[in-house]
Design a protein that fits this description.
By secondary structure, the chain is an alpha/beta fold. The protein has two domains: 2-174 and 266-281, Rossmann fold (3-Layer(aba) Sandwich), CATH 3.40.50.300; 177-262. 32% of the residues lie in helices and 23% in strands. Strand 7 (143-147), helix 6 and strand 8 form a beta-alpha-beta unit. The model has no long low-confidence stretch (mean pLDDT 91). InterPro entries: LpxK, P-loop_NTPase. Keywords: ATP-binding, Kinase, Lipid A biosynthesis, Lipid biosynthesis, Lipid metabolism, Nucleotide-binding, Transferase. It is an enzyme of class 2 (transferase).
């Protein structure tokens, strides 16, 4: 059981981490399944997510995204989901979130943190952004993964490096080629992720001409009214509507051709810290 979780509330990059880990395990010849609660979905589960027949309303957006990379199970009861995955032939289970849930034993716990934001003011909700104190969380973790560009990594090391006593991996999110260069292209961008501004910064780095941005709530439903308003605004601005891969799976099928998706993937500076942990679980 490999838990990909966080200490912060909100987006830190858990889903891209789970996707990258799935591909890395596959390259090592290990058949991995993902188990997730399916936040925002209606299904209780355990049920295996089917990309072509399930919707984000049923499974949640993150589960649909994960299902493109590895067999994925939605289960409000994570233990039941893990059992279903094992019965279906899983050799490893990637638990998307659930670091604070004691229902399952974690053979490997990876805490993911946004390098720029770090652990905020170090305080627990509502005084700060944390689900639990940093010291308590890191004491239960096997590895810390900080995600961000070099400048953010340097900032994180300066602010929090003294508290890190466990293996530490570093990575960044890199956009995949879209097929249509964004340099100079007028864009209306929207994102309903943990920190939408990171997506808008990515578009700027790609050279897009951001005419309008809409920062939505994480997992916010893309209602007909909302989408009609943004498409109308984009037409007035002469702009292409652009969103994240996670938001795109919540779009109704008839709107997907009208909205460009810019996917990102996690790239690690060095897989060695994670491979050392995987060697412990899967000795050759």
């Amino acid at each position: 059981m490999i838990c990909v979780g966080n200490i912060n509330a909100g987006g830190t990059g858990k889903t891209p981490t789970a996707m990258a880990l799935a591909m890395h395990l596959s390259a090592r010849g290990i058949k991995a399944h993902a188990v997730t609660r399916g936040y925002g979905g209606s299904l209780e589960g355990p049920v295996q997510v089917k990309e072509l027949s399930h919707t984000a309303d049923q499974t949640g957006d993150e589960a649909l995204l994960l299902a493109a990379f590895l067999p994925t199970w939605v289960a409000k009861d994570r233990l039941a989901g893990a059992r279903a995955a094992v019965e279906a032939g899983a050799e490893a289970i990637i638990l998307d979130d659930g670091f604070q849930n004691p229902a399952l034993f974690h053979d490997l716990s990876i805490v993911v943190v946004d390098a720029h934001r770090g652990f905020g003011n170090g305080r627990v909700i509502p005084a700060g952004p944390l689900r639990e104190p940093v010291e308590a969380g890191l004491a239960r973790a096997d590895l810390l993964l900080s995600i961000g560009p070099d400048t953010a990594q340097e900032k994180f090391a300066k602010e929090w490096g003294g508290k890190i006593k466990l293996p530490h991996a570093k990575g960044h999110l890199a956009p995949l080629p879209t097929g249509l260069p964004l340099t100079g292209i007028p864009v209306l961008a929207f994102a309903g992720i943990g920190h939408p501004e990171k997506f808008f910064q990515t578009l700027k780095a790609l050279g897009a001409d951001l005419r309008a941005v809409h920062a939505l709530d994480d997992h916010q439903p893309l209602t007909d009214t909302l989408m009609a308003r943004m498409l109308r605004e984009a037409k007035q601005l002469g702009a292409q509507v652009v969103t994240t891969e996670k938001d795109a799976v919540r779009l109704p099928p008839e709107l997907r051709p009208k909205v460009m998706t810019v996917p990102v993937r996690l790239e690690l500076e060095d897989w060695a810290p994670i491979d050392a942990q995987l060697d412990r679980l899967f000795p050759t």
